[in-house]
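Before relying on records like the one below, remember that each one covers exactly one chain. Contacts with other chains, cofactors or solvent are not represented anywhere in the record.
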Amino acid sequence: MVSLISILALATASLTMSVQAPAPSPEYREAISNFLDANWAKAEPFIAKHVIEKPDDGPAWYRLGLCHYNMGRYQEAVDDFGKAVKLQAFPPISLLLSACCENRLGHKEQAISALEQAVQNGLASANRLREEPDLKSLLKEPRMVTLMDRLDNPLRGVEASDAMDHWVGDWVVTGTQNNDPLTTRVPKGQRTAHNHIVKVLQGYGVQENWTDAFGGEGKSFFIFDQASKVWRQLWVSDTGWVVQKVGHQVKNGIEFEGKQLQRGGETMAKESLIAYSPDRVRQRGETSTDGGKTWTVSFDLTYVRTKAAKK
């Protein structure tokens, strides 16, 4: 049975067919046709002959490795993928497939080393590794646990990447009372707004899902710009209110500045999201119509984490 990785690898290999130069021989074209049909046994001898004649053809070594892998000739596949990597033919997937072969051969340490190299070469999906049957027996190995944790948390320790962590969760939202979020109470029996904030895409994104007290909705998508160490926001509501802001980390939270577009036109906007406790966050927004000379508070909200609001 062809594995998930084999399917992905086959798709990758097929992408190179239109860029090969010079044009392959009729014999090799037939071999490639068999390869793309997953007829490994028919394709293998002709691809093997091709790499002898053209040893610098990295994609051909990659295809030969894939043939040997699916034919159960794992040591030969390891050697083939090694040559493909040296010739810069799809290093991440070549190393990933090599790891599958090494593990099939009982070489756990070599398999994990190949996966570590695959990550260094750009492999970024922990889920792909979890789904691959040839790698399941490695998942509890200490080095593998460390590697998977690294893939699951690519932004751990990166400056400002955690600037919005305090806002992630389910919240009941009400107006801030007496300028003090810690003493603000959720009104009993009154309508309240709700906001559900989730981290997505391995922490590179945060999604806001807002519902106001009367059912109106709005959503934000925040993107972490790793190079600039800032968060970029795009908000849109079901009334057409659009906000674009850039946020910088501050003590206990984050502050944004940018612009908003409403029916009345474009205005400057800024906002702060500050944690007052693990279960209390204050969100305060201001707008300016005179180029930032003066600012007017547009909203001042207290977020109470859902579990705390029920106490």
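The first strand starts at residue 169 and ends at 175.
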